[in-house]
Each structure stands twice: as structure tokens, then as C-alpha cells.
Amino acid sequence: xxxxxxxxxxxxxxxxxxxxxxxxxxxxxxxxxxxxxxxxxxxxxxxxxxxxxxxxxxxxxxxxxxxxxxxxxxxxxxxxxxxxxxxxxxxxxxxxxxxxxxxxxxxxxxxxxxxxxxxxxxxxxxxxxxxxxxxxxxxxxxxxxxxxxxxxxxxxxxxxxxxxxxxxxxxxxxxxxxxxxxxxxxxxxxxxxxxxxxxxxxxxxxxxxxxxxxxxxxxxxxxxxxxxxxxxxxxxxxxxxxxxxxxxxxxxxxxxxxxxxxxxxxxxxxxxxxxxxxxxxxxxxxxxxxxxxxxxxxxxxxxxxxxxxxxxxxxxxxxxxxxxxxxxxxxxxxxxxxxxxxxxxxxxxxxxxxxxxxxxxxxxxxxxxxxxxxxxxxxxxxxxxxxxxxxxxxxxxxxxxxxxxxxxxx
Length: 410
Ligand SMILES: Cc1ncc(COP(=O)(O)O)c(C=O)c1O
Ligand SMILES: N[C@@H](CCOP(=O)(O)O)C(=O)O
Known about the structure:
A 6-stranded mixed beta sheet has the order 1-2-10-7-8-9, sandwiched between helices. Strands 5-4-3-6 form a 4-stranded parallel beta sheet, with helices on both faces. Helix content is 41%, strand content 12%. It contains 16 helices and 10 strands. The model has no long low-confidence stretch (mean pLDDT 98). Pyridoxal-5'-phosphate binds next to helix 10.
């Protein structure tokens, strides 16, 4: 930080702005365009990048105006529109680049492979980046608890995939034991290299607002590395003078996997790990998050809030967002449901500039959407379900359906 502080904030803003849209290696990546803030010493030849970052900051105009009592300044940061379909790419490019550097001469460290426990997104990112670099990847997955789309990603990328009869927290305990024994490098967000990459999403948001700070940023939380990464990105920009304040952070959890929410509600007095229940937001079905202490630092420093969402709330929020042009994942649904609550109780105002972080691509979780639109979910009204209409291939039958649907609009 002392070395970076030799330049004023305006220097960094101008440098980062000058790299937007460039193809000069490695600056075309949203992560590596901030190389000096991420991993300054690495040789560009060692970088393993799949041109991650630079994700869309979507103006959720209709969702805000029509469904959130006239919110005009609502934005969704689409971190899931990325190479492997989640924000994990932002951190994995940094971690795998560093491993690549360590394995190559002159350092030539004997790293046999890189391993992680995963609810499906970390494993996909790790496998893709390792495959691109020719490094063995080992992934520990909780059997039958991740989506089919997520499962096929490491399989296709040639990783060693262990499907274990435990939950994510069990996989996490095992990978920590295994990496303590074998020369396998741990790729979960315990490893701060991951967070160095993930923090660039925060810097990117500031840049996309022409270096103006939003009032609120809402992040879905599971293992809790990402909420800290966002804080770190914003705080770094504040300390180095790129901006003058921090946004307030909201960490949103599924009610079925809410250890941080409970901790927050206890006034930060008692953290109790739990056995997380199944949730449609399956990538955050985590009961014993490894970065809980970092999350508390982030929330305390930003006057932050922790919110929770039931299964029905998160699925409705996701589906309503889809109705306004998105294709959100259930985790984004958790963050959106938190927004609905905070807006309803007046904590977030109509004019507050608010960013909801979308963490994965909706296509990775299509089964949850199919179940919702089929109205097949027990005890859920699925109020925004839009099932297809089966119609006879006959002009009259088709016209009848359309006239009914477009009643009053024809
Ligand atoms: C899609 C998705 N959203 C949110 C999260 C939560 O991120 P974190 O574990 O850093 O809290 C994860 C992973 O846990 C995820 O895969
Ligand atoms: N959702 C994550 C859970 C592990 O989180 P990590 O950030 O510590 O790797 C996943 O996709 O595996």
C-alpha cells in the first residue's frame, strides 16, 4: 500500500480507465487491468487469464421502477456472465497464475496439483483455469448437492472429481486435511490470492460509475470470502484516494443456511456453525463458513447489514427479476430478496444508488427455474410461474390462446 500511495488517486483512475477495452496482454482482463492492485510482481508471461471481469453493470430500470416503489438507481453487477459462469473466475485467474509461476523455473516448486472443496462454482473455475495452464486440478464435491451444469464443468475440463457423501462443510474439512499432507495447493477462498482477484469487481463498479461511490452493495454470502473481497476493493480505493467513502454492504444469506445472519442478530456475540439445510441457492448451502471473521470486519467497517431470504422469497425475487429481462441465479435471488425487504422497511431509499451483485449465470441453475415454472415445488405458490401453453397446431386454437393472453391489448 505504501508503494501504491506514492501516486495520487487520479493517477490510478486514469491508468485503469486507459486500459478499458485494450487487447494488450494481460490488460484486457478486468482483473489484470488492475494488476498493480492485485499481484504487482508477477511476470505477464506467467498469467493464466481467460479474459475474466469487465462484466456488465446492468441498469435494472424496470425492476426498480415497477417493483421497488420507484427506485431509479438500481443496478445489477453481472459477475456471473463470465468464462465459467460465476464470479469465481475473478479470483481463480490470480490463484492459478501464481501457482503457474511457482511451478515454473526458476522457482520450480513441486506443486502436484491444485485442489478445492466446492458447491460447484469454485470447482468449475479451478478446473477451467488449470486446464488452460496444464496443471492438474482436484475437486471435492458434495454428492447430489450441486447442479448438473456445475458437475459437468470439471468433468469436461479433465479435473479429478471426487463426489463425496457429505455436505460442503465436510468436503472443506477433508480438503484442508489432504492439502496439509500432499503437495496440493489449496484453492478455496481461505487463500487470499482468490480475494485479491475478486476485489476487482468492487473497483470495476466504481469505475463503471465514473468513480462515484454507490450507497449500497448487496452480496449473497456462503463461505464469506466475497463480502470481504468487496470490502477490500472499496477500502483500497478509499485509502489510495480514488474515491472518498465506502458504500454500505449488505450480506444476504438463504434462511436455510444462515450462520452469519444468526451471528449478526446476536449482536456479533455468538457464532454458531450449523448443518446447512438444502436450498435452491445450493452454492451457498454452507454452515461453517471459513471466512466468517473477515466478513465481520467488512460489515463492521461499512456499517453493514446481514439479511436472510426464505426459499419462496428468493425464488420469487429471482423470477421477478427474470420477468424484467434478467436470467438470474437463485443466489442473486437471495440478494434481490434482501433488497425487497430493506426497501419495504425503508432502510434503502427510493433514490439510493444500489448495486445487487449477481454471482452466477442463471443457466447453471436451470432445474430450479424449471421446477418453479412447472409449479412443482412443495408449499410454494410460485406466483411468477409462466408455464408454456400446450396448443393444438391449428390456426383457430392458436388464435384463441393469443386473444385470451392479449385481452385488452389487441
Ligand atoms: C453463485 C454463488 N453465489 C454466492 C456465493 C457466496 O460467495 P462466498 O462463498 O464468497 O460468500 C457462492 C459461493 O459460495 C456462489 O457460488
Ligand atoms: N460457492 C463456493 C463455495 C466455496 O467457496 P470458496 O470461495 O471458499 O471457494 C463454490 O462454488 O464452491
